[in-house]
Design brief:
Length: about 60
């Protein structure tokens, strides 16, 4: 494995983890503001996190 691929994989993982962390943080804030909508917020959060993970895996395979 070459150095650019290692750096690329690291950046991909950092970006994906930041994205999922931001989604989780925003979802917790939204649930705190509107507890009655927690089910819908949680479903949207899980779907968004899955899409980010899928994109990260695709980018890792490309790297």
């Amino acid at each position: 494995m070459e150095i650019p691929a290692i750096v690329g994989a690291g950046l991909i993982l950092i970006g994906a983890s930041l994205g999922i962390g931001r989604i989780g943080s925003s979802a917790m804030e939204a649930i705190a503001r509107q507890p009655e909508a927690s089910g819908k917020i949680q479903v949207a959060m899980i779907i968004a996190a899955a899409l980010i993970e899928g994109l990260a895996f695709a980018a890792l395979f490309a790297a």
